[in-house]
Amino acid sequence: MKLKFLLAALLLCAAQIVSAAIYTYIDANGERVFTDNPPKSQRTETIEIGPSNQMSAPAAVKLPPVYQADPAPLAIQYQVLRILVPEPDATIRANDRQLIVTVNSEPALLEGHHYRLILDGSPLGEPSRSPVFPLTEIDRGTHQLAVEIINQQGAVLERTPSQPFHLRQSTLSDKRRVRPCEKDDYGVRPECPLKDKPKEKRSLIPFL
User: Fold this and answer.
1) How many CB atoms lie within 10 A of CB 14?
2) 56-100, pLDDT tens digit by residue?
3) How many domains does the chain fold into?
4) Measured between alpha carbons, how far is 114 from 159 in angstroms, rounded to an integer?
């Protein structure tokens, strides 16, 4: 059994090394020995080993070049997006609480894109391709205004920083300051009530 096991091991090694010769001989104890390096003092026999059943590695296959599709064109960037009216930090007097906002972009608005006005952090009205936004019922005070360009999916492509404007309503005092009340204005103009009409000075000398 030991001899068969040794023989099988040697044959397995021989399958890995085709060029090596295997020798056998009987040693002093009467045991058959297999080796690839026989002693010179022993009479040996050469064992012929068949060719290895291992397959040589296939030659490298040259694959055709892979042609990659051209990358998708980059989205066109807007160079300029700004609010023209009102100007930043402008003070606007509007008793009717109305305001016209105009915007501008370079290049001009592209197909499928829209402007969206942002007032105090919230979208105001529906997106539009028009650069003019009429606003109504604007409360008196300071407000923050911005404009966005969005695509058909609603994604924001460009946005301006928020800029403040101040809406004031002219008071009667403001109107009187701009146009002082004349004698005939009292009781006619709302800012010139009759109660504010100066009393006429009477002369102490009759008929003077």
Assistant:
1) 19
2) 555 555 655 544 544 444 456 899 999 999 999 999 988 889 999
3) 2
4) 12
